[in-house]
Specification:
By secondary structure, this protein is α/β, with parallel strands linked by helices. It has a single domain, classed as Amidase signature (AS) domain (Amidase signature (AS) enzymes, Alpha-Beta Complex), CATH 3.90.1300. The chain has 19 helices and 15 strands. The relative contact order is 0.16.
């Protein structure tokens, strides 16, 4: 769930000269175009089609499975989907019958959704965090609460997606999107570009139209970063809006699940289903009275006229091509009536080291508790370390487990270094960070380019991230963060972020919906083949 930035490869600007298009997904595959085309289909359009009898959930699931089999597992494989739910068609069939007899349960009735493989499902699929160590682990005893919520809403859990192994929290030199179980996930806009992590498989698969919507998880950047790289809307909710139980953990102060979709409305509909209080996850008790039943409420009447937005200028100038796209978008926001205010936030270095300390302590404590509850041969972080050493050829062919080793050396959560680091994070990211600056500049939300375009995947030099990311401040604060496509650089998408304070999720989504209508920057990917790079 961690996606920490490194230096971007300079060849990122040469996409046009280094790749040759092979045509649209339909054109290059053996899939026949259906009567009702599912590519780029929204939840709303699919519900309308199912209500009219133009398509059924069974037919929808079949088409998505065919796309996965044809475009993810043969030919120019993305390696984004680890496995398809063997019961998906049966579930869809029962939901089609229910639609005819009693009507749909919710806007998600019959809608296929892909789930990141660090979220428990008590079905025939595995939950492994991408690690070979958990391939033979006992099935989780119950669904994660967010999975239960999706099933209750009538969604079809279509399959599990690949991820950066252990949510990108194993090595300081990891390749985003690589796991021992799934190997390297690719970016559908350019196959030798990285999908970013750790929700890489969800990002790649939803962008490539392998399902209608998906679920990612984030500790720091791992929803918004792959959404940025794959031309998607990604939403990291306020920590506590969605139950964290049943998610293989890194940090109980920063972890959360959230939707990844091709539109803000679809993301909001998914959030409406999964948001809720879980008595067994104490942080969700804080959400009582603060959550909405319908996160799309008020979308059509929301305007940017007179809305004050704080622009994080420090990120605008970090990348010359991103700056060009950003400035064009800002002009359009101003034309729509938004008032932009320049905001200089504290440098991440004021709490960056403290964040790493907090994550290291909480990872060991949380993972040991999860593995003990899960059962099986792998019971502790130490067991995982030993497994990786014994299976170096398959688990550590490109990078090691430095983060695992550092976490194993930590003590318990009562130690003073942990408590001090936790205090620094809360002060720096919340009180002296987002809260202070929203108040100081009298702005409703902060906006910023999310990150750079996708970088080249390189397992030899192991370039693990983009040139910058604005994810850390809201991640450490535990506050909502929405990214939306704002444009493209040489065919590679980039996004704009909106960041708010605690429990402002609905307002951030409303503003994002208007932003999306103004920019209309989402475009479907084409599979690209890497050409020979000139020396």
């Amino acid at each position: 769930m961690v996606s920490l930035p490194k230096v971007i490869h300079r060849r990122s600007f040469l996409v046009g000269s280094l790749f040759a298009t092979t045509g649209h997904l339909w054109a290059q595959s053996k899939i026949s175009r259906p009567t009702f085309p599912i590519e780029e289909a929204s939840i709303e359009s699919l519900q309308k089609a199912m209500a009219q009898g133009s398509i059924t959930s069974v037919e929808l699931v079949r088409q998505y499975i065919q796309r996965i089999q044809t475009l993810d597992r043969s030919g120019p494989t993305l390696r984004s989907v680890l496995e398809v739910n063997p019961d998906a068609l049966d579930i869809a069939r029962s939901l089609d019958i229910e639609r005819k007899t009693t009507g749909p349960r919710s806007p998600l009735h019959g809608i296929p959704i892909l789930i990141k493989d660090n979220i428990d499902t008590a079905d025939k699929m595995k939950t492994t965090a991408g690690s070979l160590a958990l391939m033979n682990a006992p099935r989780p005893k119950e669904d994660a609460p967010l999975i239960t919520a999706l099933r209750n809403a009538g969604a079809v859990i279509l399959g599990k997606t690949n991820l950066s192994e252990w949510a990108n929290f194993r090595s300081t030199r990891s390749s985003s999107g690589w796991s021992g179980r799934g190997l390297q996930t690719k970016n559908p806009y350019a196959l030798d570009r990285n999908p970013s992590g750790s929700s890489s498989g969800t990002g790649s698969s939803i962008s490539a139209n392998f399902a209608t919507v998906g679920i990612g998880t984030e500790t720091d950047g791992s929803i918004v970063s792959p959404a940025n790289a794959n031309g998607l809307v990604g939403f990291k909710p306020t920590v506590g809006l969605v139950s964290r139980r049943g998610i293989i953990p890194i940090s109980h102060t920063q972890d959360t699940a959230g939707p990844m979709a091709r539109s803000v409305r679809d993301a909001a509909l998914v959030l409406s289903a999964i948001a809720g209080v879980d008595p067994k996850d104490s942080v969700t008790l804080m959400a009582k009275g603060k959550m909405k039943k319908d996160y799309t409420e008020g979308f059509e009447t929301t305007s940017l006229k007179g809305v004050r937005l704080g622009l994080l200028k420090t990120y605008v100038s970090r990348h010359p091509e991103v700056e060009k796209v950003t400035l064009k978008v800002l002009d359009r926001l101003i034309a729509a009536g938004a008032i932009l205010v320049d905001v200089e936030l504290p440098n991440r270095s004021t709490f960056g080291e403290a964040e790493r300390e907090v994550l290291s302590y909480e990872f060991k404590a949380g993972l040991n508790a999860y593995l003990a509850e899960r059962g099986g041969d792998i019971k502790t972080l130490k067991d995982l370390i030993d497994f990786n050493e014994a299976h170096k050829d398959t688990e550590m062919p490109f990078f090691g487990q430095e983060i695992f080793l550092a976490a194993q050396a930590r003590g318990d959560l009562k130690e003073e270094p942990y408590l001090q680091a936790l205090s620094i994070c809360a002060q720096g990211a919340r009180k002296d960070g987002i809260d202070a600056y929203l108040e100081k500049y009298k702005v409703e939300a902060l906006i910023s380019p999310t990150s750079t375009p996708a970088w080249l995947t390189d397992h030899i030099n192991v370039t693990g991230g983009g040139g910058f990311s604005c994810s850390s401040l809201p991640a450490v604060a535990g506050y909502p963060h929405l990214t939306i496509p704002m444009g493209a650089i040489h065919g590679l998408p980039v996004g704009m972020s909106l960041i708010g304070n605690a429990w402002s999720d609905h307002r951030i989504l409303q503003l994002g919906y208007v932003f999306e209508k103004i920019t209309q920057a989402r475009f479907a990917p084409r599979f690209l083949i890497s050409a020979e790079v000139p020396s």
